[in-house]
Amino acid sequence: MGTSKKVVIIGGDAAxxxxxxxxxxxxxxxxxxxxxxxxxxxxxx
Length: 45
Description:
Blueprint: E1 6-10, H1 14-26, E2 31-35
Parallel strand pairs: 1-2
């Protein structure tokens, strides 16, 4: 049973989503969890 790597990001604004994107590019198997207090998160096509 393998251990998967996880990263938690606080804030789903542009900076938080940018950090999540960079983390996934560096390690595609990384599990990214983002917490956002407001009703919207930032996204880009």
